[in-house]
Design brief:
single chain, 280 residues, alpha/beta, binds calcium ion, Diguanylate cyclase DosC
């Protein structure tokens, strides 16, 4: 038994050091990736549950490294934050998103609703965040009213007083504000009252559990009712099956996002599948 646990520890150590190496490798590559265009945005539609029509879209960041392969944002966003690169990554996302809207429009395509961008806690916390964002958008000849900013509750609770001030400013500039991953982490309800949100994005874990777990179902129902009573839009995230869509519809949820409708895909694929030409 002693021998076995010894080799267990060794295997564990080897695994840890492989992971550590991957992270170190990744950190040095992320900087290059930014400069060499290895990061790109993919787009996922937000749809109406009743007819599947598109009402908006979310930009999701992708990184393809020649040696490490595809790296998930859940893995490299925290790394970018640790290494002081998150502002550069965020600026890249905003620049890329603006360029994409212009390109689609230049090609005569009609954009349905707003483009949602994810903003991490640390991005929101940077002193220059709102100013840089507004400048980038207006310099691109676009208006903040074309964007929706997705913030997490944990993100705004790092410094709630300051977050509130920034959010008011962003909202006054024309951005719409969404709570991302609603239901995870912090006790959510009181925040909705104090912050100027337009939309709630209910975390996919509740949707995925709603047909098998009574508390998940109860949480989805309560969120639908609450959003309606507070006058907030609600998007159910992570909808994967037709049964989930039917259940959501039956309790009065109107908007959804998830693999059932479409995965995040590159801009050309997204445009071919989801965007229509403006009438001449
Ligand atoms: P998120 O904002 O909650 O985004 C939703 C995630 O769920 C995305 O993963 C999306 O691809 C995935 N997803 C969508 N529909 C389904 C579904 O039906 N089932 C399942 N299982 N998953 C679904 P992704 O693209 O890997 O992004 C992960 C997280 O990384 C995002 O979570 C967001 O927090 C962060 N992120 C992505 N892009 C950016 C960015 O540009 N900036 C920042 N700061 N964070 C980003
Ligand atoms: Ca999001
Ligand atoms: Ca989410
Ligand atoms: Ca998430």
């Amino acid at each position: 038994a002693a021998k076995r646990s010894r080799s267990g520890i060794e295997a564990y150590r080897a695994d840890m050091s492989r992971r550590l190496e991957r992270r170190i490798d990744m950190a040095s590559r992320l900087d290059q990736a930014l400069r060499h265009g290895e990061l790109q945005l993919h787009y996922q539609p937000q749809v109406r549950l009743d007819d599947g029509g598109i009402v908006g879209m979310e930009a999701l960041l992708r990184w393809h490294d020649t040696e490490l392969g595809w790296i998930r944002p859940d893995e490299f966003i925290p790394l970018a934050e640790e290494r002081g690169m998150i502002d550069a990554v965020g600026d890249f996302v905003v620049g890329q998103a603006c360029a994409q809207i212009r390109a689609w429009r230049g090609a005569g395509l009609l954009l349905p609703g707003r483009l949602a961008l994810n903003i991490s806690a640390m991005q929101l916390d940077a002193d220059t965040f709102s100013e840089r964002l507004i400048t980038a958008v207006t310099r691109a000849g676009l208006s903040p009213t074309e964007f929706d900013l997705e913030l997490t509750e944990s993100g705004i609770m790092v410094d709630p007083v300051r977050s509130l001030a920034i959010m008011k400013l962003l909202k006054a500039a024309g951005f719409s504000l969404s709570v991302d991953d609603f239901g995870m982490g912090y006790s959510s309800l009181s925040h909705l009252k104090g912050f100027p949100f337009d939309k709630i994005k209910l975390d996919g874990s509740f949707v995925q559990g709603m047909l098998t777990d009574r508390s998940d179902y109860a949480i989805v129902m309560a969120t639908v009712t609450m959003a309606r009573n507070l006058g907030l839009q609600l998007v159910a995230e992570g909808v994967e099956t037709a049964d989930q869509a039917v259940a959501l519809k039956s309790i009065g949820c109107e908007l959804a996002q998830g693999f059932l409708y479409g995965r995040a895909c590159p801009p050309e694929v997204f445009a071919a599948r989801w965007l229509q030409s403006a009438p001449a």
